[in-house]
Write a structure and sequence with these properties.
Blueprint lengths: L20 H6 L4 E3 L20 H8 L4 E3 L9 H19 L2 E3 L1 E2 L2 H7 L2 E5 L2 E9 L12 E2 L5 H13 L4 E7 L10 H12 L1
Parallel strand pairs: 1-2, 2-3, 6-8
Antiparallel strand pairs: 4-7, 5-6
Length: 197
């Protein structure tokens, strides 16, 4: 965040995707893991992220269509920060046409976006986004994130996608051990389970 800060208190993210923006806009669908909350000020980086709302608009303007919210940083500002994040993305759904999955404000929204169904070039896609964990442990109540270890929930989302006539179900897990360039045995096992299901 500090690299984008301007003296007048605004943020300029224009350099972030400048080398790939054209490719993102040309894609039939572009998906991004939004690994931060929009929890409001004070903005912060590691270890508890809260980014300015304008970064989400910038990412959408660069061509990202789908925001993935199931990640370990989504609760960095608690349930209130996660709800504020959803509020911002909800407004962007109207203004920018973006969609999101992985975190829901209530059961009605969760039923709508888990899995997230869409039609792209005539193909019915189902996106299922989940995270290995959230910082500070699991949260109960709403907003609710999708956890990879909740296999019954993930299985139900996959079955729902198939029942809705999806041509392909795309699993989008947020996982891995930081600073390790290869997958762990746990990831290998989880990937096998996802493939089987």
């Amino acid at each position: 965040i500090s690299t984008a800060a301007r003296d007048d208190g605004t943020y300029d993210f224009s350099s972030y995707f400048r080398y790939i923006e054209d490719r993102l806009k040309e894609a039939d669908i572009a998906v991004a893991n939004m690994e931060f909350s929009l929890g409001g000020e004070p903005y912060a980086g590691y270890p508890a992220f809260s980014a300015p709302d304008t970064i989400a608009g910038y990412v959408a303007d660069c061509g990202i269509d789908i925001f993935l919210l199931a990640n370990n940083h989504i609760y960095d500002r608690g349930l209130g920060g996660a709800q504020r994040t959803l509020d911002v993305y909800g407004r962007m759904k109207e203004g920018h046409g973006i969609r999101y999955t992985g975190l829901a404000a209530d059961q009605e929204e969760r039923d709508e976006i888990h899995p997230l169904m869409m039609v792209v070039r005539g193909f019915r896609l189902a996106l299922v986004n989940m995270t290995y964990a959230t910082n500070g442990g699991e949260r109960t109540g709403w907003p609710k994130v999708n956890y990879l270890d909740d296999r019954e929930d993930i299985r139900k989302a996959i079955e729902k996608a198939e029942g809705l006539g999806s041509d392909i179900v795309i699993a989008l897990p947020h996982w891995g051990n930081e600073y390790e360039p290869t997958h762990s045995e746990r990831q290998k096992e989880q990937a096998g389970w996802l493939t089987e299901n």
